[in-house]
Input
Amino acid sequence: MPSSGCSPVAPWRVISLSEVRPLADPEVARPLRKDAARNRKRLLAAAGDVFDAQGLDASVADVARAAGVGMGTLYRRFPTKEALIDALVHEVLEATIEMARESANRADGTGLEDFLRKSSAFQAAHPGCLPKLWNTDHDMVKTARSLIGELLADAQRQHKVRHDLTGTDVTLLMWSVRGIVESTRSVAPTAWQRHLDVLLAGIRPSSEDLAHRPVTRKQLDAILEHG
Amino acid sequence: MPSSGCSPVAPWRVISLSEVRPLADPEVARPLRKDAARNRKRLLAAAGDVFDAQGLDASVADVARAAGVGMGTLYRRFPTKEALIDALVHEVLEATIEMARESANRADGTGLEDFLRKSSAFQAAHPGCLPKLWNTDHDMVKTARSLIGELLADAQRQHKVRHDLTGTDVTLLMWSVRGIVESTRSVAPTAWQRHLDVLLAGIRPSSEDLAHRPVTRKQLDAILEHG
DNA sequence: AGTGAAACGGAACGGAGACTCCGCTTGGCT
DNA sequence: AGCCAAGCGGAGTCTCCGTTCCGTTTCACT
Output
């Protein structure tokens, strides 16, 4: 069947799938059909809306309805509800990592605070998947952590934050903001800003050290496993 | 039917029910039969254990089994799962209020920090009902808030905490600790202490005010309504 | 235009869990 | 001792929700 005399473009060729299937497994994968790709985007957008509004307990049927597709479509694209949530988490983590990279460009010691303010704002704008944000997607979480570690080190070099602060402290700080966002978003959507003010005041240099020992990295890793 | 010639002690008399039925409605109520009172205590204890271990998603059947009673017994004592949780919340809030009163006796400005450390420790020891702690039982929550307000005022008078801190800030602070307890209890049950260290550092007097406006009392009240 | 693999919709399934019902038991009173 | 309201256990009901199945439709390639 040599139609045009050459077949350099086999039907199974792999070309820039990252745009269409950001979560594709490492095996050979076909690009999605146009309608399928469109529905995948709709589903993710709808899931974000629905979970933002109702929390992760919202039913997948609600998501499918909001996306204007049937259950079958949803489940062909995301094999379980968890996979759907993971995809949302993936997006938020990706954005968070990007923000950490941008803040790192400052290198004047203000990157950490800049990052904390921006990433908190982003999370406040995407509250739906917050409960799962730091309990999944091990690799991205670790990437984020190491970037945050760099931001922290820089801030400490420039004497912008207390010397006894650790990376795990900063992680807890972010979880703390997440908790406030979750608790207050319905009636005081910007309350986290005030809370972050207090936290930032708490991490500034001080003559007296924090009274208790920090959490170890290993302990936080354990949360990822059986979160 | 005058059996003993007098009936000063009618079967419906109301005597010191608070011990047996702390949540009894304001209407006329009989004391519980001995076995019923015993089972009520067992149920509350079991519910605490089960929810502490598995979270509020644990099934009521698990609670009944842990208490060694049947479903019927559980539901005669607590008409819904929510009522059972409310009873637990009630206990924790009661203890919290008591702690606030004790701390207030200091009146040397250290009461607030003392209260925050003790109540956090107590909550960390009873994590099961934390998600509902501040969303139910309006009256007790308001009592707690006003006591906290007094602790704060005293601390500010003695220049132990920053002058621009409000009662709502302290409330958010407690919610924040709650979030950290919930997130870390499985692998780092004392992590909240370190986090509280940071928060306490953040509320100490400072030359620069917090950047954002505090949440209003009214906003926090709204959370109680439709939590 | 024709074809078939991929995708679609939504009804049906299965399991989990909150809650109810009812026949049996027991504490507390006379 | 005897009565009976109160209490008890736990099987059964009902609803909700994640997931699957399958007949129909649509894309994409020839």
User: Anything to note?
Assistant: Residues 1, 3, 11, 33-36, 59-61, 71-72, 75, 79-81 of chain A lie near DNA strand D (CB under 10 Å from a C1'). Confidence is low (pLDDT under 50) at residues 1-27 of chain A. The two ends of chain A are 54 Å apart (CA to CA).
